[in-house]
Write a structure and sequence with these properties.
The complex is a heterodimer of chains A (353) and B (252). By secondary structure, chain A is α/β, with parallel strands linked by helices. In chain A, 39% of the residues lie in helices and 21% in strands. Chain A has 12 helices and 16 strands. In chain A, strands 2, 3, 4, 5, 6, 7, 8 and 14 form an 8-stranded mixed β-sheet that branches. In chain A, strands 11-13-12-15-16 form a 5-stranded mixed β-sheet, sandwiched between helices. In chain A, strands 1-9 form a two-stranded antiparallel ribbon. The longest helix of chain A has 18 residues. Chain B is globular and about 50 Å long. In chain B, 36% of the residues lie in helices and 17% in strands. The chains are: A alpha/beta (353), B alpha/beta (252). Chain A: This is 2-oxoglutarate ferredoxin oxidoreductase subunit alpha.
Chain lengths: 353, 252
């Protein structure tokens, strides 16, 4: 096995490098803090892979450029942060409706509105409930480390083409702005899952192709929605979670992204003091790892969901364990940067309740 | 008795009745696009970006690959598509609500970047599919369902002249306004399309053709009166002509 070389980089750069390793050849974006390292890095690096870099006139345009490149069968992506991702929702809905693959990175910042540029998990609902108009879902991956930022980009492109669906990577300002060692790796070969059989590349020697989300004939839209729902059902097998010290735990904390990582430190400290606490850190937010939580609930565990928002993922935790258990909630307000100390008191309180 | 075919539709036109109202010029514009693509040998290499409104169904009438864009975003979608397939011919087909209102940013910036795409802009001064509401191109005094007393400058502002805007941008290679109200003007429209399309094929830059068109239904006119309105009311405000041609005036 060849020696793996570690590089010391920011999470945003890890995301950009992961996209390049995944074979991304088209990048479209618009500057917004705290994700600017991604377009800045790719503005020069895209040329090294003979790719395209466009600084769009808006997030609206960037997401629609993504739609266009995706219709052409290209491995394409855009990146933004919360207010910008709100502007992208129109195109994301159209991509879901037209079944186009693309990767959208959201380096979540504080909100609502302009909020602040600090870290937050306030976009959980927007990410996992579709975000735009109509009945659709996007696959959502949630990195909590720079390495996961890199790895999940490679996974995101593969999933986008496997399901012909937009994939959202929901990072946050902590993941994007922290710096840590990352081991880069190149996947064997990009698998576009037969994109050449549906993409637009000129109708030479074949029937023309039409990629659309308008279905006016009687029953046509109902049929398309049934197809989409079947696809979302099939996606459920992609659900993943990092399960830590849950076997003998009396209280299982559920937390994702960088907050999940900070809570892991808290759980380690409590374990060293003999307190029986575990952690489930969802790695996919849609599909949500409901089976993992349900199996744990069946063992009689109690749950505490911790998020850097006012209570969003806790809904999914409760739905996952419904009929068996419930989950308490502790919210750390966006606009305030937490450390592992901040979670000691709430976890102990719920452990001893 | 043998028959000699002297006139026919180009093969790229799909043989089906259009859904357009009597006297609507979309059919004429579609045919012109189809003829030019066929004559230039581009049929197998063309990627069409449809927009919103009556014209979204252009993909039902032209036998080419196509994708639908959200309202106004066709130039951004075309940018992504062209960047992914630089060797293909990419064009958008957009109405005035789509291009001059909600999509103003996208068209201005795609033109200004000099994207190697072609844009066919149908200006009939009204929203068609949504039922005759005021457009950014609605003329002063023109009655629509949202300007029932006629457009007034004080309330609604002036009609936007898009070719003047696009022609003034650095990335535009070709920009012309034509009209579909007479045979002579239709012939001129076809030449304009060919010039704009050539600018993409030879890599010169962004091509834009604005076509003054009739919407008899929403103008509440018969087709003949609608044609007369174009020549007597629209052309005086929207003058025909070439607003930019980098191959002629020596610009960059």
């Amino acid at each position: 096995m060849s020696e793996k070389k570690r590089i010391f980089i920011k999470g945003n750069e890890a995301i950009a490098r992961g996209a390049l390793a995944a074979g991304c050849t088209c990048y479209f974006g618009y500057p917004i803090t705290p994700q600017n390292d991604i377009p800045e890095f790719l503005s020069t690096e895209m040329a090294t892979v003979n790719g395209e870099f466009v600084q769009a006139e808006s997030e609206v345009a960037a997401a629609n450029m993504l739609l266009g490149a995706a219709a052409g069968g290209a491995r394409a992506m855009t990146t933004s942060s919360s207010p910008g991702v709100s502007l992208m929702q129109e195109a994301i809905s159209y991509m879901a409706g037209s079944e186009l693959p693309g990767v959208i990175v959201n380096v979540n910042r504080g909100g609502p509105g302009l909020g602040d540029i600090g870290s937050s998990q306030g976009d959980y609902f927007q990410s996992t409930r579709g975000g735009g108009h109509g009945d659709y879902r996007t696959l959502v991956l949630a990195p909590g480390t720079c390495q996961e930022g890199y790895d999940m980009m490679i996974e995101a492109f593969d999933l986008a083409f496997k399901y012909r669906n937009p994939v959202l990577v929901l990072a946050d300002a902590i993941v994007g702005q922290m710096k840590e060692p990352v081991i880069p790796w190149e996947p064997k070969a990009a698998d576009n899952h037969g994109a050449e059989n549906w993409c637009l590349d000129g109708a030479k020697g074949r029937e023309k192709r039409l990629l659309k989300s308008l279905f006016l004939e009687d029953g046509a839209l109902a049929g398309q929605n049934r197809n989409l729902q079947a696809k979302y059902e099939a996606m459920q097998e992609e659900a993943r979670a990092d399960v830590f010290e849950c076997d003998d735990a009396e209280l299982v904390v559920v937390a994702f992204g960088s907050i999940g990582r900070i809570v892991k430190s808290t759980v380690r400290r409590l374990r060293s003091e003999g307190k029986k606490v575990g952690l489930v850190r969802p790695l996919t937010l849609y599909p949500f790892p409901s089976e993992v939580l349900r199996d744990i609930a069946k063992k009689g565990k109690r749950f505490l969901t911790i998020e850097q928002n006012c209570g969003q993922m806790v809904d999914d935790v409760r739905l996952s364990v419904r009929g068996i258990a419930d989950s308490e909630f502790h919210g750390h307000m966006p606009g305030d940067l937490p450390g592992s100390d901040d979670f000691l008191a709430p976890i102990i309180k719920h452990l001893e309740d | 008795m043998s028959e000699k075919l002297v006139f026919d539709a180009p093969e790229i036109m799909i043989d089906r009745p259009t859904h357009y109202c009597p006297g609507c010029h979309h059919g004429v514009a579609h045919r012109l696009v189809g003829e030019v693509l066929t004559e230039m040998g581009l049929v197998d290499d063309t990627l069409c970006v449809g927009s919103i409104g009556c014209s979204v169904f252009i993909y039902n009438y032209l036998d080419v690959d196509a994708v639908e864009a959200p309202h106004g975003r066709a130039p951004a979608v075309a940018t992504g598509l062209k960047r992914a397939h630089k060797d293909k011919f990419v064009f958008t087909y957009q109405g005035d609500g789509d291009l001059a209102s909600i999509g103003l940013a996208e068209i201005v910036h795609a033109a200004n970047r000099g994207e190697k795409i072609s844009v066919v802009f149908i200006n009939n001064t009204v929203y068609g599919m949504t039922g005759g509401q005021m457009a950014p191109t609605t003329l002063l005094g023109q009655k629509t369902t949202t300007s029932p007393n006629g457009r007034s400058a004080e309330e609604h502002g002036m009609a936007i002249r898009m070719s003047e805007i696009i022609g003034g941008l650095g990335g535009t290679a070709y920009c012309e306004r034509v009209s579909l109200d007479s045979v002579k003007n239709i012939r001129r429209a076809k030449k304009a399309l060919r010039k704009a399309f050539e600018m993409q094929i030879n890599g010169t830059g962004f091509g834009f053709v604005e076509m003054l068109s009739a919407c008899p239904t929403n103008w509440k006119m018969d087709p003949i009166a609608a044609n007369t309105r174009i020549s007597e009311e629209m052309i005086p405000y929207f003058p025909l002509g070439v607003f930019k041609d980098v191959t002629k005036d020596g610009e960059e």
